[in-house]
Amino acid sequence: GPMRVSTGSLPPAETVRALVREAWEHFAPVTDGHVADYIPALAEADPSLFGLCIAGVDGRSFALGDADHAFSIQSMSKPFVFALVCEALGGGIARERVGVNATGLPFNSVMAIELNAERTMNPMVNAGAIATTSLVPGANIEAKWAFIREGLSRFAGRELAMDERVYTSEAATNQRNQGIARLLHGYGRLYADPDEATELYTRQCALNVTAHDMAVMGATLADGGVNPVTRERVVDADRCQRVLAVMATAGLYEHSGDWLYEVGLPGKSGVAGGIVTIAPGKGGLGVFSPPLDAAGNSVRGQLATKFLSEALGLNLF
Ligand code: DON
After folding, report:
1. CATH of segment(s) 78-205
2. What are the binding positions for substrate in this chain (predicted)?
């Protein structure tokens, strides 16, 4: 379809519906990429699954394909936990303790910690995300877990639950994240017990969502923090601006520059194959397709999002 210039709202419903269908049909045959296998439970994912959903700030949604298939949120949890922590502690404190600059390195980079005197660079990569999770308020681990699970559920507008298989699989194989947490602890850049922080981070990554959930969660950030379906305010509008800025900077890791250049919107990927993208003031887009590129970003997710950003006139620039 033709590229549109960004306007104040999503195009009419029939246009959105037709373009979602066009994106799905166009990219369904793509077979590039490989499902994540460093978390054993994710290696079993069906590479043919492909779900798309757009949720508008008016509460309408347009879903197609496997948009109701449950998969683990993984790194897409990071911006939402950061938003909740900013809300609880104040954005200034969160920024000072975690950072908001790009690393230019893979999501689980230890070198990024060693190369930068600040140690944690931003809440989208594992180091900064584990540091963010270590800032979650609560008297004990279960209170902190409730804060995360209930907060992410408010973004989704429904009760989210953990995928026990993914959690168990990742908890048995997350030595690298345990190492990152300990390294940060050694640098005074972790704000809770390192094992507790890694445990909570692993649980948060194993929360199950659907492409439809991710679209609504994205639409909540697009709507200045109000869930457009439940009408509940989840976070303040100024938090959303900050979270979207850090997503634009680092949401697709070392490919964040290419993403912003091509899509022109803040987005966040997860290794289970999800990508959530936010069109501020307009809505959220959730895509699910397990095969990933070398940076850990869904191949079809990126293609479909780029297509829809152009066709719907969502590019911010
Ligand atoms: O910490 C990990 O390795 C995973 N729980 C999340 C990584 C992830 O989703 C990276 N994304 N594209």
Report:
1. 3.40.710.10
2. 75, 126, 170, 177, 201, 253, 271
